[in-house]
């Protein structure tokens, strides 16, 4: 950085000083962001290689399967004898093809979904799609999200709502919903048979807190400091990208809030989010 | 029967590869963790062993090194997502791999590489068999020579049998 303290005039007026400080802060923030993106890009290249690898390969296989199937439909078109049709059907191993086609497509879709998730996460990291902060009702956000993840939750967890009186807070609700979703899905994954997820909301002075507590398997103390790192995951490949929490962390930070985790292995995990009701620097226009 | 071992921690990679090898008539065994692949090395003789590079618990170089000790004749190939130089050098020097396959791949690359690995394995095996055969025959020859020498020593002249015009053995009553 060009501005080192040594060439900083000592008798700057306070205004000038604070402007410079702000500038330095912005630069710091930017370089942190760049470092995060760099780290992300290296990880992303590897994460994307696998799904792209098998989807690409499957497409080549699909080409062969289709040309086999076309042999059959062409024969139908030519009105070949039933005998001939059976012969072709046998030679292309139709039964196998049918079954494997379904698997091939399902696996390929899964691969593309993974790439999509990673790209979406990248976008959120780089904040290319800037949305506006607006007043929103967090309880509504929670309910919407519960609907979305209902499938993941319903067989495993009973959801207990311990809601306080919350004022609307200034936020980007779509992003907070993402955070809520990540926490709920993680909680559901942590529950091995069946268990409980408690969602607690409170209003305290100029901020609100949200808690997500589960009775799942908990987090190893050695892992606790790493769960917010990009690509940190204990889930098998293909199941978790390890981006959920790092993304959530970024979103909460962007909202000038904090997210923390406490866990007792074998008993459960508690994620706590603290969010200010107002955003610093936001003009009150509502 | 030609046995092929494929190891990658991602099941979808394995099924995609298996599809490409379907028509070759090989027995293809796939594994998502190194441990069970190592178990398989105990019971099955493989012609070709293909392993992913980046895997949790045990990386591909370590696994292939292990496979090399267990089944030195099997031809080793490595699947790798990134062309990191150091990892390639390690793989070549420590695991003596035959080919690198990149992710993502072209179907013909995989097929051609594994086919030529199978060929190489067979040629190596044949070579070894021929060599054994030559050695065995050499041993036999030497044994016969020694036997002849012994006979000659005990009965001088016995190994130099003379024949007359019509091929019958001429017995000279020396004594
Ligand atoms: N509620 C929880 N209980 C136990 N472990 C958790 C919980 N939430 C997170 N973790 C641990 O933190 C890791 C990182 O979580 P994160 O949401 O970032 O990624 P992921 O769930 O593994 O993958 P993704 O969310 O990208 O599909 C998880 O793999 C898990 O080990
Ligand atoms: Mg998650």
Automatic annotation (TrEMBL), chain B:
SMART domains in the record: REC
SUPFAM superfamilies noted in UniProt: CheY-like (SSF52172)
Residues modified to 4-aspartylphosphate: 52
PROSITE patterns from the UniProt entry: RESPONSE_REGULATORY
InterPro entries per UniProt: Bact_response_regulator, CheY-like_superfamily, Sig_transdc_resp-reg_receiver
Coiled coil listed as a keyword: yes
Pfam families: Response_reg
Gene3D superfamilies in UniProt: 3.40.50.2300
Residues forming coiled coils: 127-154
Record keywords: Coiled coil, Phosphoprotein
Domain Response regulatory, first and last residues per copy: 3-118
Name of protein: Response regulatory domain-containing protein
Organism this protein belongs to: Marinobacter zhanjiangensis
């Amino acid at each position: 950085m060009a501005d080192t303290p040594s060439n900083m005039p000592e008798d700057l007026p306070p205004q000038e000083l604070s402007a410079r400080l702000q500038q330095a802060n912005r630069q710091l923030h930017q370089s942190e962001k760049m470092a995060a993106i760099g780290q992300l890009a290296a990880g992303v290249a590897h994460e994307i290689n696998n799904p792209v690898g098998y989807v690409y390969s499957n497409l080549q296989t699909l080409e062969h399967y289709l040309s086999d199937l076309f042999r059959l439909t062409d024969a139908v078109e030519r009105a070949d004898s039933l005998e001939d049709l059976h012969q072709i059907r046998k030679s292309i191993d139709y039964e196998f093809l049918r079954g494997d086609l379904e698997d091939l497509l399902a696996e390929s879709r899964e691969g593309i979904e993974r790439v999509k998730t990673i790209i979406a996460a990248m976008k959120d990291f780089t904040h290319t799609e800037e949305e506006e902060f607006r007043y929103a009702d967090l309880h509504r956000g929670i309910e919407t999200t519960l609907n979305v993840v209902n499938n993941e939750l319903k067989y495993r967890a009973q959801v207990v709502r311990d809601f306080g009186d919350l004022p609307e807070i200034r936020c980007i609700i779509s992003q907070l919903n993402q955070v809520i979703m990540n926490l709920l899905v993680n909680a559901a994954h942590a529950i091995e048979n069946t268990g409980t997820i408690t969602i607690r909301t409170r209003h305290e002075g100029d901020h609100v807190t949200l808690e997500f507590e589960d009775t799942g398997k908990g987090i190893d103390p050695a892992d606790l400091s790493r769960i917010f790192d990009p690509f940190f995951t204990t889930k098998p490949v293909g199941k978790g990208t390890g981006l959920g929490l790092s993304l959530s962390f970024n979103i909460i930070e962007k909202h000038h809030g904090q997210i923390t985790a406490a866990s007792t292995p074998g008993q459960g995990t508690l994620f706590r989010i603290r969010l200010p009701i107002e955003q610093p620097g936001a003009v009150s226009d509502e | 029967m030609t046995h092929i071992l494929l190891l990658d921690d991602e099941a979808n990679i394995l099924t995609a590869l298996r599809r490409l090898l379907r028509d070759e008539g090989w027995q293809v065994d796939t594994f998502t963790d190194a441990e069970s692949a190592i178990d398989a090395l105990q019971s099955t003789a493989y012609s070709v062993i293909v392993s992913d590079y980046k895997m949790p618990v045990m990386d591909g170089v370590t696994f292939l090194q292990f496979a090399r000790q267990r089944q030195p004749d099997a031809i080793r190939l490595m699947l790798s997502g990134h062309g990191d130089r150091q990892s390639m050098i390690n793989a070549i020097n420590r695991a003596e791999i035959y080919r690198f396959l990149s992710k993502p791949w072209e179907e013909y690359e995989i097929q051609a590489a594994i086919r030529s690995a199978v060929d190489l394995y067979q040629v190596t095996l044949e070579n070894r068999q021929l060599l054994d055969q030559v050695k065995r025959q050499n041993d036999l020859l030497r044994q016969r020579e020694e036997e002849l020498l012994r006979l000659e020593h005990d009965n001088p002249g016995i190994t130099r049998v003379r024949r007359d015009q019509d091929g019958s053995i001429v017995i000279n009553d020396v004594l």
